Fold Phenolic glucoside malonyltransferase 1-like.
Amino acid sequence: MSTQILEVCQVAPGDKSPESAAEFSLPLTFFDTLWFQVPPVERIFFYQITELNPAYFTSIVVPKLKQSLSQTLLHFLPLAGRLTWPTDSPKPIIIYTPNDTVSLSVAESNADFDFLSSNGVKEAAELRPFIPQLPSSDTVSSPIALQVTAFPDKGFCIAVNSHHAILDGRSTTLFIKAWAYICKQLLKEQNPPILPPELAPFLDRTVIKDVARLQTVFLNQWAEVNRSMLGNESNPRCLKLRQNIFAPQNVVRSTFQLNRDDIKRLREKVLSQLEAINKEETDVVKSTPPIHLSSFVLTCAYTSICMLKARQEDGNTRIYFGFTADVRKRLDPPVPNNYFGNCVTGKFFAAEATIFMEENYGLAKTVLRISNAIKELERGPLDGMEKMLPLFFTIKPGNCITVAGSTQFQVYSCDFGWGRPKKVDITSIDKTGAIALSEASDGLGGVEIGLALKRHETEAFTSLFVKGLA
């Protein structure tokens, strides 16, 4: 496989436009500072175009992507800026100044497009050439980096590397959808396109109320992490991103799907186990009705169980399961759905591995624990949030299962004018070990699951996953 970088260009927001001519700054909220040194989030979108030749790619695809990106950045000015921490500021801020740009790499590859965009097992390293690096230092970090790669006669991919302190998953997909919308309109020669209200970012940070002073809590916690755990005694204000936290070594990537019938069968299995538990009056974690039996809960529970069994985890090992939840609608007052920035919190629970892997009731017991964590969000979306960061850095690597992405983002709707993506991957799970979730690509209501495991674990997981649904 050979991948060649053709150019690295700097795309400015709406060249010479009035909007891009003024300095712009945006403070981080406590939701942002919770994440500001965790590994960046990488997504890659594969688009199949069998007639894609080098001339069409360089004369049509790349110019339209550049032009539409420039127009999109007019609405998303923070992405063209930089994250910094001025000495006179109590917290990091995003600063945009005229002539700031976003890096867009353009590449060509002779790699096997069909294989890379399939659900088959592949070395995690095989997708690395298509992911741009996100510049990050002790003093400054870029919000986003982009790369478009052509596969002649097959298609192209767009990769997005985004800083988690600046964008959560909903904000990232909002940007991608806005870029795709504008690009598609430009291909129809509708210039300049008008961005629909639902795709325009809401940038007002005053809607986030820090009643509990969590901003100060998180900044102090990150300073302690830098001092005691990361060996950065001299710079408690360090902004450098941590590239690996729970990353396994020598992993392969694979994709699995649960269709609507699979999810229905899992739901029926949980209800059957719960009925048996009640009859036996088994000592099990209690949950008051209603129990959450959503696709998210069932997918996370079933996938976690198969993962731990595939890894042949010791039953006495204490396993932490964590997920992030969008709290835009849970805050009082609610925050607009198109709020740009982080508006997510995390929930964890811990249990011995044997609880997950129990043959008779493991699925139901895991579902109950995830359901209870969701109910904690309903009672108070910010309750216990101050404990999340210290816990994150004290869990032993390999003992934590987390979730990336969401079926709610509708990533397969991102059409730049050349059709829906053939495949969308969250590639950063090979650095975090997380379970990647999205809606199924066929649009029929299923769930797509991305994993990064060692090869023998992947083989075992595949067997367990299929047999468990039979």
